[in-house]
Amino acid sequence: MTTTTLTKQHTTAPDAGPTASYAARIDHVSKSFGRPGAQQHVLDDISIDVAPGAFVCLLGASGCGKSTLLNLVAGLDAPSAGSIETPGGRPALMFQEHALFPWLTAGRNIELALRLRGVPRAERREEAERLLELVRLKGAYGKRVHELSGGMRQRVAMARALAQDSRLLLMDEPFAALDAITRDVLHDELTQIWRVSNEGGSAAGGLSVLFVTHNVREAVRLAERVVLLSSRPGRVAREWQVDIPQPRRIEDSAVADLSVEITEQLRGEIRRHGQH
Amino acid sequence: MASTDTRAHSDDGTPGAAEAGSATDAGTATGPARPAGGPANDTSGDLAGLEAGLDALESTVVDRQPWLRSLASKAFPPLIAVVIVLGLWQLAYHFQLKPHYLLPSPVDVGRSLQEKWLEGTLLSFVWTSVSRGALGFLASVVIGTALGLVVARVKAVRAAIGPILSGLQSLPSVAWVPAAIIWFGLSDATIYAVVLLGAVPSIANGLVAGVDQISPLYLRAGRTLGATGLAGVRHVLLPASLPGYLAGLKQGWAFSWRSLMAAELIVNAPDLGTGLGQLLEQGREFQDMSWVLAAILLILIVGIGIELLIFAPIERRVLRSRGLLVKS
Fold it and tell me: So what's the ipTM on this one?
């Protein structure tokens, strides 16, 4: 149960040192909800290592507990058994909803993340502008959240998550509520940010992404590694290494072929639940 | 850092042109070992154009009316309504629905006001009441806010006094006047006690409602950003509850003002300053209907004026900045 302690250490010691060979280690984690006796097992003995600089997609149907798992990794909840280590400190988390604070401008949202991370006041503005430029929203600093489109909001949310300067970015279906065109563009955006962050000696401080989705194509489009979870309770059903070179497109035939294979497996998992 | 090539291609015009123009050079410039002819190496240039296009398409232009015109369009309808009411009143006076000493004309009431104005006492009456109201309200804000925070955040306290607090709102504050007189006599303390008892519950309730309405998402987002404990209260909890809190403050002012008038009407002593409530009571004692109506009018005007001049703009600003103000 190192999660909470590590999370708390993060702000003071963001450098995990070169010893950690993983950005996140999910070690035999189980999670149940409810009172003893009437418990619901959501996650059962899950072990996943996320390598530094890796892009891992957690894929599964509803009820597989993928969001629960992400909450555990984020330190928002504690596992019932097993341990989770995030040596890079408190992970950044992005939700399906942008979760930007409507009482702050886009820029101020990012600055709040910087401030809570301990960045001195004088540097915040410049850093916020830099992050906005990174997600191609130069000039959106003074914009209110409601003045931005759905895609722009998610990009500001991405910038805010990046402002935490965490080595591990957790994403909980962040593009699920967007239209297909915008989602496609944000896939490119995310891939690019992830690749650039890991360019040139990723040992120094690469960005690992743990991305939760129920969209097979999205998983194959983005990830280096796709982990399929079974449902109720969530277990690791199977894993794929995705060797299709980035940048990929969601309509690439290689992406489609692998998606067909994974979808078949996913359907098999879902079908099992109808047989009881 | 992200995109040297992004900026190079961002001016390429249409996404299509960028794609066609930069496919080869961007590929050789930035592409880390990649099979030739691989899928779109020019993503960054293409992407910048695409995103700019999407942003432009999805951005809505919000045009705000010039303030003079919006003021005119807002002030006009109520003005018409006031004129109509005055007209009906004048008609009722004209046809003597009631004898003139029971129903004076608008002009009589105006003359009564003018008289007080010329005596030089009118503003001091208004000021006495407004300063009492403001002082009582500020004290209520301090107490109500602290109380509201405790009730909203501490489960045991909430279970114990939450229902009582919301029940108190439906108790007319005049009911406190006899009790307050017994406790404090005919003094300022009585007036302030009544004002506090009237306003504190609604301010506290407003804050509780504001905290309850906070989307759990903001609290989770705050926690992942590291806003826990006091930082969480300051950066997430308080700003997120502001709309409900403001509504509570507004209602708190209305309750303060009402309670104050009730108290002033009853707590009448020569050594206490004369407020609008006392003015009203004096009018009744003299059986001077235009005096009474003038006092009622003043009480109404001050109450509405403070809400319009202070609370409405603050509330509008907060709601507009959060996109919560629905435009008609």
Answer: 0.80
